[in-house]
UniProtKB/TrEMBL annotation, chain A:
<dbReference type="InterPro" id="IPR017871">
    <property type="entry name" value="ABC_transporter-like_CS"/>
</dbReference>
<keyword id="KW-0547">Nucleotide-binding</keyword>
<dbReference type="Pfam" id="PF08402">
    <property type="entry name" value="TOBE_2"/>
</dbReference>
<protein>
    <submittedName>
        <fullName>ABC transporter ATP-binding protein</fullName>
    </submittedName>
</protein>
<dbReference type="GO" id="GO:0005524">
    <property type="term" value="F:ATP binding"/>
</dbReference>
<dbReference type="InterPro" id="IPR027417">
    <property type="entry name" value="P-loop_NTPase"/>
</dbReference>
<dbReference type="InterPro" id="IPR050093">
    <property type="entry name" value="ABC_SmlMolc_Importer"/>
</dbReference>
<dbReference type="InterPro" id="IPR003439">
    <property type="entry name" value="ABC_transporter-like_ATP-bd"/>
</dbReference>
<dbReference type="InterPro" id="IPR013611">
    <property type="entry name" value="Transp-assoc_OB_typ2"/>
</dbReference>
From TrEMBL, chain B:
<feature type="transmembrane region" description="Helical">
    <location>
        <begin position="253"/>
        <end position="273"/>
    </location>
</feature>
<dbReference type="InterPro" id="IPR000515">
    <property type="entry name" value="MetI-like"/>
</dbReference>
<keyword id="KW-1003">Cell membrane</keyword>
<feature type="transmembrane region" description="Helical">
    <location>
        <begin position="204"/>
        <end position="224"/>
    </location>
</feature>
<protein>
    <submittedName>
        <fullName>ABC transporter permease</fullName>
    </submittedName>
</protein>
<dbReference type="Pfam" id="PF00528">
    <property type="entry name" value="BPD_transp_1"/>
</dbReference>
<keyword id="KW-0813">Transport</keyword>
<comment type="similarity">
    <text>Belongs to the binding-protein-dependent transport system permease family. CysTW subfamily.</text>
</comment>
<feature type="transmembrane region" description="Helical">
    <location>
        <begin position="152"/>
        <end position="171"/>
    </location>
</feature>
């Protein structure tokens, strides 16, 4: 078995009557990038602060490299944290910031200078040692905050939504850069975020969290293609959602009639749904194929046609809203291959998707939830 | 437009000029002029440095001057040592209602005049006072104990009077320190001592210096507390100035004393700023 850098067992944290973290268990293998993804208030920050040692868990265990750290105070734990607003020390220059942890360990002066120089080299900012914190750009501060932790060679690095304060372009850039830094330092990263794209791009494993529990743990692909709960289907990526009733269930194939009267076919993906159950169906806009002729869609179980109600142009992420004869609105991704360049309001299009692409769940309150 | 902005400029500047001129510059010029004249007969004056020479020639004046300076520095240091943990607790540890309640408690004594507050200390410390009776009742003393009219009582009074002026700037600067910066200090291996030394104190430095300057000046210029709590044995330089002006009608010497006190406080404030590497703009602005 590969060694686990971080193991969390049945971790629970209660604040008076409120349960912030409810019996969560997971483990993170050495050298991997693990993300906890969830809406604000789901308990992800509480988990992180318990791992860092700022909060004591109500029950459960936290093990780092196999050793329980519950009795270890935060300044002695082999974990370091990159804070949401980075928390660089404004009273020190960059070299002093990075050297702070080494000074605390009692490392010799010239050794500190050497290590600080090395780590600055590694983050690609070799000449900024004497600068002040507020002279750096957002991205540079980000890298310094990571370097300040990495110079201590922690077993696990915790990152608490560190990209939240950056503007969009820089955030996109830093996603790639963080992944590169993680590979360069070869350290286990545990990253918490409410931004699905950050989690999907960077992580080896993602845990989707809601109301203090993990809904699903898996790779980005697993979460995206095979969500195991309605919450995950709604939170990761966009979806068209319908509520309906199961009218036929046979060999994994479900036939569902929506409240508006559309008949759909979907795969049950080994979930227990039988005839008469109320069900919610989630279909991603990008899983739906559009065509000018019905013949192109022969291979799909679900085939419909509708008129273009509106075109939401957003470059590569452009969408069409199509209205079926029964009045149902469906969001569909508009391919940018040139084929549909002339599509406009009022055009009639055929569209379809395979039952495999439709995820059905027992009806739940997550259906009406809107995130972000 | 041009004329309008000029008028606005004049209007904005007038109060400042009036304030500076009437309350600071003119009185000080006049004081200085008084301090450099010497009375040589009835209604006859000569310009000379005789008053300053009297000051430097009389050991009592010099000793009182030095004593006042040292005691004020000591009072400032004590206020800082007591005020810093109080301010840290209020700014960083207490939360919500407790925080505002504690801050209010610091403020409450200042709702009454300094005179009343000082009388409060006299009630506690005098021979027939609360502490004296308490000690006798417990059996630690077999006769009334006089705790007033000495340097310790005076120091207690000075520290108490100045506490708010130290605590408020400290709370303000410490509140601006992000909690996560302190947490980062622990996370990266610091303990309470090193986080305090490397993070909290450097961050609070402008507050420490501005609070110290205010407390030092208040102590140096204090008249009431040394007189009432220190008694006749505890000479304070302001008492000398008072007696020259009011008792002896020697305005010339009193003005010279006043100028020496101004010089002293300027030098000490300048020295503190230089030593701590702060500037007046940074600490006061």
């Amino acid at each position: 078995m590969t060694p686990q850098d971080l193991e969390i067992q049945n971790l629970t944290k209660k604040f008076d009557a409120f349960t912030a973290v409810d019996d969560v268990s997971f483990s993170v293998p050495a050298g991997s990038f693990f993300s906890i993804l969830g809406p604000s208030g789901c308990g992800k920050t509480t988990i992180m602060r318990m791992v860092a040692g700022f909060i004591d868990p109500t029950s459960g265990d936290i093990r780092i490299k196999g050793r329980s750290v519950l009795d270890t105070p935060p300044n002695k734990r082999p974990v370091n944290m990159v804070f949401q607003h980075l928390a660089l020390f404004p009273m020190m220059n960059i070299a002093e910031n990075i050297g702070y942890g080494l000074r605390r360990k009692g490392v010799a002066k010239d050794e500190i200078t050497r290590k600080v120089g090395e780590v600055l080299e590694r983050i690609g900012l070799p000449d900024i040692g004497q600068r002040k914190v507020d002279e750096l750009s957002g991205g540079q501060k980000q890298r310094v905050a990571i370097a300040r932790c990495m110079v201590l060679e922690p077993d696990v690095l915790l990152l608490d939504e560190p990209l939240g304060a950056l503007d969009l372009k820089l955030r996109e850039h830093m996603k790639v850069e963080l992944k590169t830094l993680q590979a360069a330092f070869d350290t286990t990263f545990v990253y918490i975020t409410h931004d699905q794209s950050e989690a999907l791009v960077m992580s080896d494993q993602i845990a989707v969290m809601n109301h203090g529990r993990f809904e699903q743990v898996g790779t980005g692909q697993e979460l995206y293609y095979r969500p195991q709960s309605a919450f995950v289907a709604g939170f990761v990526g966009d979806s068209n959602r319908w509520r309906g009733k199961v009218t036929r269930a046979k060999a994994g194939q479900l036939q569902i009639i929506t409240e508006a009267g559309l008949t759909m076919t979907g795969n049950n993906h080994r979930r227990d749904l039988s005839v008469g159950d109320a069900a919610d169906i989630y279909v991603r806009p990008e899983a739906i194929r559009i065509s000018r002729s019905a013949d192109d869609l022969a291979q799909f179980e679900n085939k419909m046609s509708g008129t273009v109600a509106s075109l939401l142009f957003n470059g590569a992420a452009s969408r069409l809203i199509l209205k079926t004869e029964s009045g149902e609105e469906i969001e569909v991704t508009l391919p940018q291959s040139g084929e549909f360049a002339g599509v406009g309001r009022g055009d009639t299009l055929h569209f379809g998707w395979s039952g495999e692409q439709a995820n059905s769940f027992a009806a739940s309150e997550d259906f009406t939830q809107v995130y972000q | 437009m041009r004329a309008g902005s000029k008028l606005g400029f004049i209007l904005l500047f007038t109060p400042l000029v009036l304030w500076l001129g009437l309350l600071i510059i003119i009185p000080h010029i006049d004081m200085f002029l008084i301090s450099i004249r010497e009375r040589i007969g009835v209604g006859k004056y000569d310009t000379s440095l005789a008053n300053y020479l009297t000051f430097f020639g009389e050991p009592l004046y010099m000793l009182t001057f030095a004593r006042t300076a040292l005691m004020s520095v000591l009072a400032t240091a004590l206020t800082l040592v007591i005020g810093f943990p109080v301010a840290f607790y209020i700014a960083k540890i207490a939360k919500g209602r407790l925080q505002s309640a504690l801050f209010l408690l610091c403020l409450v004594p200042f709702w009454v005049s300094e005179l009343v507050r000082t009388f409060g200390w006299m009630i506690l410390l005098r021979e027939t006072g609360v502490f004296s009776n308490l000690l006798q009742w417990v059996g630690l003393a077999d006769q009334p104990v006089e705790m007033l009219y000495n340097d310790v009582a005076m120091m207690v009074g000075l520290v108490y009077t100045s506490m708010l002026f130290m605590v408020v700037p400290l709370i303000t600067t410490m509140e601006s320190l992000d909690d996560s910066v302190i947490e980062a200090g622990y996370d990266l291996g610091g303990n309470g001592m090193s986080v305090m030394r490397e993070i909290v104190i450097p961050h609070a430095m402008p507050g420490i210096v501005s609070g110290s300057i205010v407390v030092f000046m208040l102590s140096l210029g204090n008249y009431l507390t040394p007189t009432m709590l220190g008694g006749k044995d505890s000479l304070w330089f302001t008492e000398l100035i008072y007696s020259q002006f009011i008792v002896r009608f020697n305005w010339e010497l009193g003005a010279a004393f006043g100028f020496m006190l101004l010089l002293l406080s300027s030098i000490i404030v300048w020295g503190t700023l230089k030593l701590s590497g702060q500037t007046l703009e940074k600490t006061m602005g």
